[in-house]
Amino acid sequence: MNKRKNINDPLYGFLTLPYDILFDLIEHPYFQRLRRIRQMGMSHLVFPGANHTRFHHALGALFLMNEALKNLRDKDVEITDDEAEGACIAILLHDIGHGPFSHTLERTIVSGVHHEDISLAMMEQMNVDFKGRLDTAIAIFTDKYPKHFLHQLVSSQLDMDRLDYLLRDSFYSGVSEGVVSSDRIIKMLYVVNDELVVEEKGIYSIEKFIIARRLMYWQVYLHKTVVAAEELLLKILERAKELASKGEELFCTPDFHYFLYDHSEKEDFVHRRDLLNRFSLLDDNDVMSSIKVWMSHSDKVLSILCENLINRHLPKIRVERSTIPREEIQKHREKMMKRLNLSESESRYFVYSGKLENKAYDTQSRGISLLMKSGEVVDIAEASDNYNLKALKGSVLKHFLCYYK
């Protein structure tokens, strides 16, 4: 059977699978689930075109990884066929553990278990299915492989994951600020002392990449209406979890019911194949089907919240640079208590505050290194004469208040 399939992608054209095993991994039920997980959560309520999935993104990141590996090999960087295959598998499966609506589930239903932990657990179970063929990929994914630069291609401040999601999310949302020169950036990659670097002549492409990332976060990922929609979904799941903990029986698909009513620890995902199989059947459809039914639930709070999400009656949201005063939050809660006849605790589902953090370039972790013509390796923020780039070091914190008029 020919497994070197050509896949037509709207960004890159035809993608060819470079290794037969990639086709088999894509066919695996764990990976097929990504077709049913939106890449951008609730962003489609603001950007109607943003309905692409994690499946799209994983294939795009695989394409960029293959291009990066070919470029490095052309520059005589030693990468064996086994290492190239492992890096391709690692990037293909890097998001396989994402739950419904991406990060929302991590804060509620499987609280305390990061999607990367689930991704690793799934990869290890798939490795059993494929009789050890994923050993190199798992070592690269966990940064335990001797060649650190391969891990950097999968996860760093300049990895194939970020390159693809900026381009892809920009394309589907229609926000042009995320367009970066991925082909030029990849052509400028090199390796020095086992570290991924960018040749000096690629400095402006990297500056654009960092600035594009900042703009995409404020304009798309942290767009205030997107935040309002995702926070509303979060409140729905919190209320459902609260009712479930009190023994209230809620309509759910079987697998969603399991995670709503049972608390699973990180170790459970590592050691229990049955739990991973249940998780692999959980997707956006389970959550939205349940929310549609909960619109007519007897619990007033859950019912109103669900109706608001389904009909896109989103809360108002105000974003400030300073902390929202407690007195103002309480004033809005008292209004909701009178309007809907709610208790103090119930009003917290309709009026709440939070924080937004944008780390365009995180200097606390390993940064992006430039290889100067002199042979010296320096951080992009130090080499650049763009003062805006220096200002992007660290994180920007803002505060928000969600409420209903």
Task: Tell me about this structure.
The chain is of the alpha+beta class. It is built from 20 helices and 9 strands. Strand 7 and strand 8 form a beta hairpin. The longest helix has 22 residues. It is globular.
Short recap of the structure:
This protein has 20 helices and 9 strands.
Provide the fold topology.
Elements: E1 6-9, E2 13-16, H1 20-27, H2 29-32, H3 54-74, H4 81-92, H5 115-129, H6 135-141, H7 148-154, H8 160-173, H9 182-187, E3 189-192, E4 195-199, H10 203-221, H11 224-245, H12 254-261, H13 266-271, H14 273-279, H15 284-294, H16 300-310, E5 316-320, H17 326-340, H18 344-347, E6 352-361, E7 369-371, E8 377-379, H19 380-383, H20 387-391, E9 394-403
Helix pairs in contact: 3-4, 3-8, 4-6, 4-7, 8-10, 11-16
**CATH homologous superfamily grouping:** Hypothetical protein af1432
CATH class division: Mainly Alpha
How much beta, percentage-wise? 5-15%
Discrete helix count: 20
Tally the beta strands. 9
Class by helix and strand content?
alpha+beta
Number of domains: 1
Strand order of the largest sheet: 3-4-7-8
* Proper CATH architecture: Orthogonal Bundle
How would you describe this structure in keywords?
Hypothetical protein af1432; 20 helices; globular; alpha+beta; four-stranded mixed beta sheet; 405 residues; 51% helix
